[in-house]
């Protein structure tokens, strides 16, 4: 009886640790303002093979690492960090 209780507790602790480490990982991601950069024509990202992407709402913070935001007139707005 007592040993099964310890097992459950250990399992619970393991779960908390797993969830906790996931949480820390996601907390590591940037917290970005949710505004939409105006006049963005398209975006390219190294992770998508520099394909032209047309995100509905993007800004320089939300853009992934290495992603480039281009204005509608084709000039570079910024590169994601
Ligand atoms: C595009 O627009 C930006 C912002 O108005 C301007 O600074 C830039 O010179 C323009 N680029 C071209 C190629 O027209």
Describe the structure.
The protein has 81 residues and is of the alpha+beta class. The chain folds into two domains: 30 residues; 40 residues, no CATH class. The chain contains one helix and four strands; from the N terminus they run H-E-E-E-E. A four-stranded antiparallel beta sheet has the order 2-1-3-4, with no helix packed on it. The longest helix is centred in the first third of the chain and has 27 residues. The chain is elongated. The termini are far apart. GO terms for molecular function: serine-type endopeptidase inhibitor activity. Keywords: Disulfide bond, Protease inhibitor, Serine protease inhibitor, Signal.
What is the structure about, briefly put?
The chain has 81 residues and is α+β, with helices and mostly antiparallel strands. The chain is 33% helix and 19% strand.
Topology diagram in text:
Layout: H1 2-28, E1 40-44, E2 52-53, E3 68-71, E4 76-79
Antiparallel strand pairs: 1-2, 1-3, 3-4
The chain binds 2-acetamido-2-deoxy-beta-D-glucopyranose (NAG).
List keywords for this structure.
81 residues; 2 domains; 1 helix; elongated; binds 2-acetamido-2-deoxy-beta-D-glucopyranose; Prot_inh_I20; disulfide bond; signal; Protease_inhibitor_I20
Largest sheet: 4 strands, antiparallel
| Quaternary structure annotation | single chain
The set of bound ligands, ions and cofactors reads: 2-acetamido-2-deoxy-beta-D-glucopyranose
The end-to-end distance, rounded to whole angstroms, is: 53 Å
The residue-averaged pLDDT reads 81
